[in-house]
Amino acid sequence: IQGQRIAEINALRADKKPAVGTFCIFVPEEIVVGAGGACYGLCGGSNATIADAETELPRNICPLIKSAHGFKLQKTCAYTQSSDFIYGETTCEAKKKAWEILAKHHPVHVMNIPHMKREKDLKLWQEEIKEFKEHIEEVTGSHLSLDEMKEGVKKVNAKRAALQRLDALRSSNPEVMPISGKDCLWITQVGFIDEISRYTEKVNELCDELDERMK
């Protein structure tokens, strides 16, 4: 995770493929994957970086936001340093201001997340996705075709299906636990970082093994 994957991401960037760091699951990962790039979670959750973040952010906001911001100020998160830009989303008031400040240190692209399910909110989200696609094209310097986006959707849906399969195996028979909840949490966390096709293949291999354990 801290060696090979970083090298893979840097190789993608050298080949003009996008590398997008995120803190949230509300990101159109399919577009990044369709462009041949990597979409991955960034560092956060450590108290060690909060003091530095509080030199720029208010002390009374979410510790997770301060932790992530501190990683950038310290330049101690290889994933942040290797990203073309950081994806920001408007899921809370603190984050909205944090992206503005973070943009002074690293490229940031913010998507306005609708908070309701009205027709105009759907239209807003469609416009935001279109702008995100255009931003990816600016990073790569090439047009992203419909077929490429469809391929991205296919890969992301395959990843989701593998995780759903894992979850179904855990809950199919409460008396038989083929894998611990802690291991499943670790597997899910790796999914925010690993190369998507390799990860999907390995999760399905694990599910095949769990099938045998259940029998």
Description:
Strands 2-1-3-4 form a four-stranded parallel beta sheet, with helices on both faces. It starts with a helix and ends with a helix. The model has no long low-confidence stretch (mean pLDDT 93). The longest helix has 26 residues, at 146-171. With 215 residues, it is an alpha/beta fold. The chain has helices at 4-14, 29-34, 50-53, 63-74, 78-81, 93-102, 119-140, 146-171, 181-190, 196-214, and strands at 19-22, 38-41, 85-89, 108-111. The chain is built from ten helices and four strands. The chain is globular, with a radius of gyration of 19 Å. Helix 8 (146-171) runs parallel beside helix 10 (196-214).
Structural descriptors:
globular; single chain; 215 residues
- Report the helical percentage: 55-70%
Low-confidence stretches: none
* Biggest sheet: strand arrangement: 2-1-3-4
How many β-strand stretches?
Answer: 4
Q: Which percent band covers the strand fraction?
A: 5-15%
Given helix and strand content, the structural type is alpha/beta
N→C terminal distance:
33 Å
Apparent shape: globular
Element-by-element helix/strand order = HEHEHHHEHEHHHH
Radius of gyration: 19 Å
- Mean pLDDT across the residues is 93
| Main beta-sheet strand count, sense and barrel state | 4 strands, parallel
The helix tally amounts to 10
In short:
It is built from 10 helices and 4 strands.
